[in-house]
Write a structure and sequence with these properties.
The complex is a heterodimer of chains A (167) and B (538). Chain A is mostly helical and 167 residues long. Chain A is 78% helix and 0% strand. Chain A has one domain. Chain A is built from eight helices and no strands. Chain A is globular and about 45 Å long. Chain A starts with a helix and ends with a helix. Chain B has 538 residues and is an all-alpha fold. The chains are: A mainly alpha (167), B mainly alpha (538). At the A-B interface, helix 2, helix 3, helix 7 and helix 8 of A face helix 18, helix 19, helix 20 and helix 23 of B.
Chain lengths: 167, 538
């Protein structure tokens, strides 16, 4: 997306501003595309779309240097592809395969050795952080820290938007 | 005492200070080159703690030294009395430092006055002590002015300076010092003079020509007392400490060669590991390291085993800090001059890890230690990110908190997206206004995470079972379900439910207030909403 490209060149733009711009744009698009939902199913669909848009814009704002942002974008793309082309499972497999090999199978071996801090906790964290399955504990903590930071930003911005619209 | 004062006084002159603390190599070279001065006597007087006996033997040398010192001496008679008192102490300090510089082979020389130990002096020229010498140069240069202030004129040292070979060596050692000074000065100075503050030294050295006896005397006495204390330990434990130092240095160098063999000077922020790294680096640079490592490999292997056993038995007990301290207590005689409270600072790159004293030096333990340090560093960072984790200690609890926090944040995002999904499309105008304005500096704290979590949970559960009255049904079902999950946040369920109702009200109002939806009556009836405009207190 253009705004992300420009913002990546501009060092003064923060994660917050990048995320806000992208998210607002996608919100406007969502609101324009569909009629306002009156039934719960539509509300649910819309909510899901908004959430996807929020995650996508957050991942884009975070940049592709982070494993979790890449993993999140891959997941979203997979989901949309899965929905879009269910007649072509090969495409999905290719994408999923790329996702797993990208993380490195060699790390899987390390994972089994490095479970010194509590297997269940580390595995829980892996499930929470996107792309956390194929990371060793060290980088998992690293990614988790950055992910928490970005989640905080996301929540702040969304809250603010919601408040503005609710007032 | 003349000889002491000779050398002490030379410290006043920085250029002349170089050879003073380098008597081991210099003296040996003098012997080999058969200089004019009484070189045979010179090492004796330097390294023999028994000043009196050496002084008796080397009267001609004393006169030679006095001749040398006379020229550079500027403040010769600054503190005759205090200098006389403090000189033996300072000299002992010098001896200790020089003993440190010269390797284990020289400890025997220190105890013997025989001139047959010249061979042991050949090593410092080619071995890491050279680096030590250069590094200690700065410290001794700093120290010498202290000593030099109490020295009367000693012209006998003039021949030292006149020696052209000496000038060469001085240049060489000074360049060594300058090269390694910046990065290693702090560590070595800290290690070898734990009680002496460099600030003190520099304060004194900055005024080498100060003639005031009072303040200088005080400073000298303080420095001397500190150095004396430390140095007494040095002299007592010089033999085992030097032996240990040499061996451990070798073993750690070999162990470092095992993982990568790469030595580099960047990232030298670890107080303990980098000390050895610098020394070994110098060793690798200037020494035919193959010969040394080959000869010491056996010793290293033994030391590795013994240390590995010791450290492994200790490391099982728990924290590596604890094991470090336990091992240090074990090797107390070897660690008298080291800082016992080495903070395990995390290294930036595992390649640069050096074995700490008394710890296992095999590559696996090293890598493990580095990994653990990395993880603890990251846990600390996460502690700052996650609110309310300051009191928490321990990885398990910390991880639990982190997991809870991430879950709550994700739930908040879901809830907010649901909220935004029900936003009136009429507000697109305000959205575009928002885009242009970009108002993002709102101080929204993480105060009411529990307030959000409940409706989030509600919605997430409700998504799966959406019926005609989804919110209603979920409301009833989840009124109590999510409350236990919020215990971790330490808030009363009462408050949570109040928040929850407020949020619900706001959502409903947002979604229904401006659009006439068919369902609001049902909601109103069930959730007991007052008609007042309530803003969500987030």
């Amino acid at each position: 997306m253009n705004p992300d490209h420009h913002s990546s060149l501009n060092p003064s733009s923060s994660l917050k501003s990048r995320f806000t711009k992208t998210f607002l744009r996608s919100l406007i698009k969502i609101n324009k595309q569909r009629p306002f939902p009156y039934c719960p199913r539509e509300i649910f669909q819309r909510c899901h779309r908004v959430k996807t848009a929020a995650d996508k814009s957050l991942a884009r704002a975070a940049g592709s240097r982070r494993v979790w942002s890449r993993a999140m974008l891959c997941k979203i793309r997979n989901r949309s592809l899965r929905r879009g082309c269910q007649q072509r499972p090969s495409v999905r497999r290719i994408i999923i395969g790329y996702q797993t090999t990208k993380k490195g199978y060699c790390l899987q071996k390390k994972m089994s050795d490095d479970q010194e801090v509590g297997t269940d906790q580390a595995s829980k964290l892996r499930k929470l952080v996107p792309g956390g399955e194929a990371m060793d504990l060290c980088s998992l903590l690293d990614e988790a820290a950055h992910y928490i930071k970005c989640l905080n930003t996301q929540v702040q911005v969304m809250r603010r938007i919601a408040d503005i619209h609710s007032s | 005492m003349e000889k002491e004062k000779l050398f002490l006084n030379e410290g006043a002159n920085s250029t002349a200070a170089v050879p003073i603390w380098n008597p081991c190599s210099f003296g040996m070279e003098m012997q080999s080159n058969k200089l004019n001065c009484c070189s045979d006597q010179l090492p004796n007087c330097f390294f023999n703690p028994n000043w009196d006996s050496s002084m008796d033997q080397s009267d001609p040398f004393a006169s030679a030294l006095s001749s040398i010192v006379s020229s550079p001496v500027t403040t010769s008679n600054a503190i005759p009395s205090s200098g006389g008192v403090g000189d033996p102490v300072m000299i002992r300090e010098l001896i200790g430092r020089l003993g440190n510089i010269c390797n284990s082979g020289e400890t025997s020389y220190i105890n013997n006055n025989s001139s047959t130990n010249t061979s042991c002096y050949s090593t410092p020229l080619n071995s890491p002590p050279k680096l030590n010498i250069s590094i200690m140069d700065s410290q001794i240069m700093g120290n010498l002015p202290i000593l030099g202030n109490g020295i009367p004129d000693h012209p006998s040292l003039a021949p030292f300076l006149a020696d052209p070979g000496f000038a060469e060596r001085a240049a060489r050692y000074s360049c060594f010092g300058s090269r390694n000074l910046a990065s290693n000065e702090s560590e070595l100075s800290h290690r070898l003079m734990p009680r002496l503050e460099p600030g003190k030294l520099q304060r004194v050295s900055s005024n080498p020509s100060e003639k005031a006896t009072g303040p200088q005397a005080n400073v000298n006495v303080d420095g001397n007392s500190n150095s004396d204390k430390k140095f007494s330990r040095l002299s007592r434990s010089s033999t085992p400490e030097n032996a240990e130092f040499g061996d451990s240095r070798d073993e750690s160098s070999v162990s470092e060669q095992i993982p990568g063999g790469k030595l580099s000077m960047k990232g030298l922020n670890d107080s303990n590991s980098r000390k050895r790294k610098a020394i070994t680096k110098g060793k690798a640079k200037e020494t035919p390291s193959s010969s040394l490592s080959a000869s010491d490999s056996k010793v290293v292997a033994e030391m590795d085993e013994s240390k590995a056993k010791r450290s492994k038995s200790k490391e099982i007990n728990g924290d590596e800090k604890d094991s470090t301290k336990v091992n240090e207590e074990e090797n107390s005689n070897q660690k008298q001059n080291k800082d016992n409270s080495k903070p395990p600072e995390p290294l930036k790159d595992y390649i640069h890890v050096r074995a700490r004293r008394g710890q296992a030096t095999d590559s696996h333990s090293l890598a493990e230690r580095v990994r653990r340090e990395k993880i603890s560093e990251r846990m600390k960072f996460l502690q700052d990110l996650v609110p309310g984790c300051n009191k928490v200690t321990g990885k398990a609890v910390m991880l639990d908190e982190i997991i809870n926090y991430v879950q709550s944040l994700q739930r908040q995002v879901e809830f907010l997206s649901m909220k935004l999904a029900t936003v009136n499309p009429r507000m697109d105008i305000s959205m575009e206004a928002l885009l242009s304005k970009d108002p993002l500096s709102f101080p929204y704290g993480y105060r009411s995470q529990q307030g959000i979590a409940l409706p989030n949970g509600m919605f997430s559960n409700g998504e799966t079972q959406f019926s005609t009255n989804p919110l209603n049904a979920v409301l009833k079902r989840n009124q109590c379900m999510q409350l236990p999950a919020l215990d971790g946040f330490g808030d009363a369920p009462r408050q949570v439910s109040t928040f929850w109702e407020d949020d619900l009200q706001s959502v409903v109002q947002m979604g229904f207030g401006q659009n006439q939806l068919q369902q609001p009556q049902a909601f109103h009836a069930d959730s007991n909403m007052p008609g007042a405009q309530m803003k969500v207190e987030l």
